[in-house]
Write a structure and sequence with these properties.
Length: 69
């Protein structure tokens, strides 16, 4: 699967963590990891919503799913 997240916001996340310089490869790698984790959280959140009899994924579903993984 091709990366979807733009690199600039990912670069900013790394810089906010204290990095002075960030390689393009580092930002790209983090973007891929964030997408993988985001997909896992989203999939679990969808399961929670369906279990509750809903079609809509809520913020609470996302919170709960992120805690379960």
């Amino acid at each position: 699967m091709a990366r979807q997240l733009p690199i600039a916001p990912v670069d900013r996340v790394i810089r906010r963590s204290g990095a002075d310089r960030v390689s393009g490869e580092a930002a790209d790698e983090l973007a891929e990891i964030l997408e993988e984790v985001g997909t896992e959280v989203s999939t679990q959140a969808l399961r929670l919503a369906r279990h509750a009899g809903r079609k809509t994924v809520t913020a609470e579903d996302i919170r709960l799913a992120s805690r379960q993984l």
